[in-house]
Structures are given as structure tokens and as C-alpha cells.
């Protein structure tokens, strides 16, 4: 009788651990990482082209920093500024990551600007729900960050819909003289696999 009770407790414990492991794995985000450097006062992506599941496709150029979020996966996307961040521009102090912007819904080529002013409401709502862009930021495409510091920015991708979107990561160099900050950016794309 005592052996049955112990076996029952053991089975219940194993079941609880398995359920917790499954819940943890289901809730865990699929992190994507993009490493950046400042080279000659320009923001340069150093992450390799194939580092974030972004496959080569016939007829499409694949930029460094390209990110593919696989079907049925959610992701947190981290941008890390590595190395020396000294700003060599006039009155500059140091470079800091500032913002992430999206644009070019399902565009096969890099758009001239960020934002979704000319996108349909249906298309914008897909991006808005996946990346948390407020209606006030529709024209700029600025994404609400989930983490932000001078050398790291993170955004969330719920990946509910399948589409490509281009991102622009921006860094700013504050000036000692109080004038407008210097700005630099880099802009590859995100490919969402969606759940559809």
C-alpha cells in the first residue's frame, strides 16, 4: 500500500514537471539577435546573413541582419551595439541605440521611407498587432520597445500573419554643444511566417 502511495506521488510529480516544461517551452520566445557596430560613424550590421533563419531565395537579395520568424513561432528581437561607440562627428559624445522603425509591407525592395501611411488599414493592422506600433506612430512606423538601453533594444514579434516588412534600427550621437543629435541607421528586413 505504501509503495502504491509513493508511486502515485512520483507519477504526479513527474506529470507536474512535464506540464511545467511544456508550458515553459510554449511561452518561451524564439529570440533573434542582431549585432551592430559603429564603423566610421556609421551603424553597421555584423550579424551574418543566415544567422536568423533567413533563407536565400531566387531573385531576392538577402541583407545582413535579415530575420525570419518561422511559422507558428513568436519572437523577441534583440539589437546589440557592440564595440567602441565613440562618436567622431562634430561635438559628438557616443553612439546609442535609439529606436526601431518598420515600413514597406510585403515590399520586395527596400522602401524609401519607414512607416505605413500608404498601407491599407488591413495591412497596417497586421503589423500593428505583431509588432506593437501605436496608431500615433503609423506614419513613422516606430515600434514600441520591450527593452531599451544605450547598447540594446528589444522588440516583440507576435508573428500572427505571414508577410515581409523592412526595419530600420537607428542610433543617435548626442552633441556636447546641445545641437540636434547626429543620426545613423541600418535597414534590412523581417520575414514573418505567421500562423495562417
Keywords for this entry:
2 domains, five-stranded mixed β-sheet, 2 helices, about 20% helix, about 35% strand
Can you characterise this structure?
The chain is of the alpha+beta class and 196 residues long. It folds into two domains: 1-29; 31-192, no CATH class. Helix content is 19%, strand content 33%. The protein has two helices and ten strands; from the N terminus they run αβββββαβββββ. It has helices at residues 2-27, 121-131, and strands spanning 32-39, 42-45, 67-69, 75-81, 92-103, 147-149, 152-157, 163-175, 182-186, 189-192. The strands form two sheets. The protein has a five-stranded mixed sheet with strand order 2-1-4-7-6, with no helix packed on it. The protein is globular, with a radius of gyration of 21 Å.
- The topology string of helices and strands comes to HEEEEEHEEEEE
Shape: globular
Total of helices:
2
- Strand order in the sheet with the most strands: 2-1-4-7-6
Strand fraction band?
25-35%
> Largest sheet at a glance?
5 strands, mixed
Q: How many discrete structural domains?
A: 2
Helix residue percentage? 10-25%
| Strand element count | 10
